[in-house]
Specification:
mainly alpha
């Protein structure tokens, strides 16, 4: 019986540590999800900037004419 009470005492002593680990796990999950969404938005913006730059380069080039080649 004394060993059982001692084991329960050890279990109760570990509860704060387990709570800290649980809170850290939940916070880590939400921060990871936030970082993934943020990265998705940034990559989308980078892709749009690249596409706009390519379109800008295509339409801002002077047109070649036959007179320039002669």
């Amino acid at each position: 019986m004394q060993a059982l009470l001692k084991g329960i005492g050890y279990l109760l002593a570990t509860i704060p540590t387990l709570l800290v680990l649980a809170v850290a796990g939940v916070l880590g999950f939400f921060l990871t999800a936030f970082a993934a969404v943020f990265q998705f938005i940034i990559m989308g913006l980078a892709l749009m900037v690249g596409v706009v730059y390519c379109i800008w380069e295509v339409f801002s080039k002077p047109k070649d004419t036959d007179k320039q080649k002669e």
